[in-house]
Design goal:
This protein has 228 residues and is mainly α. It has a domain at 154-228: Arc Repressor Mutant, subunit A (Orthogonal Bundle). The protein has helices spanning 21-28, 32-40, 61-73, 81-95, 104-116, 118-122, 126-140, 189-197, 202-209, 213-224; strands at 19-20, 53-54, 57-59, 143-146, 149-153, 169-170, 181-182. Strands 1-3-2 form a 3-stranded antiparallel sheet. A hairpin with a 2-residue loop joins strand 2 (53-54) and strand 3. Helix 3 runs antiparallel to helix 7 (126-140), helix 4 (81-95) crosses helix 5 (104-116) and helix 9 (202-209) crosses helix 10. The longest helix is centred in the middle third of the chain and has 15 residues, at 81-95.
Length: 228
């Protein structure tokens, strides 16, 4: 029997170029221009991670996870993304991971090391370090791991800074062609919001799909929100 990755060719589904830039930006709540800078650089500033494809610029699921964690860090006031890149390089060397953000060791061992070095590398104050840890812990709780690597991502569904948001939308590269779906179902969020915009009420959609109204409302929020 072939190994799981053989089904997809030479790369596992987590590494396939599956998300055009604009779509990826919506998932991780960034403007496309910001995500383009992070993925490709601009001739002066280096890219923050390696995109799955450069021509056209297309991201993999692993790139989504990297972008999601970086976007969460960006919420900490005053953190320079170029300094974050330097810090992640240092962390990768210390932990032995080429891409520490998508590795389970980042959650178990790396966050503490990252925050400990934040004042020196990121020039983040002591108060800022506490916020950074809170943001990282909350973000990494929205990632599911299989073995050592990120396997599923539960993106932020609400625009508030409340880190206790429900895990109602999931991106799984091995299900639903990697498109965002309502967790526990195969219902794509874009299909839900398409029906909603066509005039079907949220309560009617919840009854039709046989799921809780809150999950329908979160799917609509998720697809309708603005980039951070």
């Amino acid at each position: 029997m072939p190994k799981p990755r053989d089904i997809y060719g030479t790369k596992p589904p987590e590494e396939l170029p599956a998300y055009p830039l604009v779509h990826a930006a919506r998932i991780v709540r960034l403007s496309p221009s910001t995500l383009r800078l992070w993925a490709a650089g601009d001739g002066v500033r280096e890219a923050l991670f390696r995109p799955a494809s450069r021509a056209p610029l297309t991201l993999s699921f692993s790139n989504l996870v990297e972008s999601f964690v970086l976007a969460s860090m960006r919420r900490v006031h005053g953190i320079s993304m170029q300094k974050v890149r330097k810090a992640l390089r240092y962390l990768g060397k210390e932990l032995g991971y080429d891409r520490p953000v998508i590795h389970a060791g980042f959650r178990t061992d790396g966050v503490g090391l990252f925050v400990q070095q934040a004042d020196r590398i990121l020039e983040v104050s002591r108060d800022g370090q506490a916020v950074l840890r809170e943001v990282l812990d909350a973000s990494l709780q929205r990632i599911e791991w299989e073995g050592d690597l990120a396997a599923r991502l539960y993106p932020w569904v609400r625009t508030s800074d409340d880190f206790a948001q429900p895990l109602t939308v999931v991106v799984d590269p091995r299900r639903g062609f990697g498109q965002p779906v309502i967790a526990g179902t195969g219902i794509e969020t874009r299909v839900v919001v398409g029906r909603y915009r066509a005039g079907e009420g949220a309560s009617a959609l919840a009854e039709d799909y046989g799921i809780e109204l809150e999950r329908i409302e979160d799917a609509i929020r998720y697809e309708s929100r603005e980039a951070a």
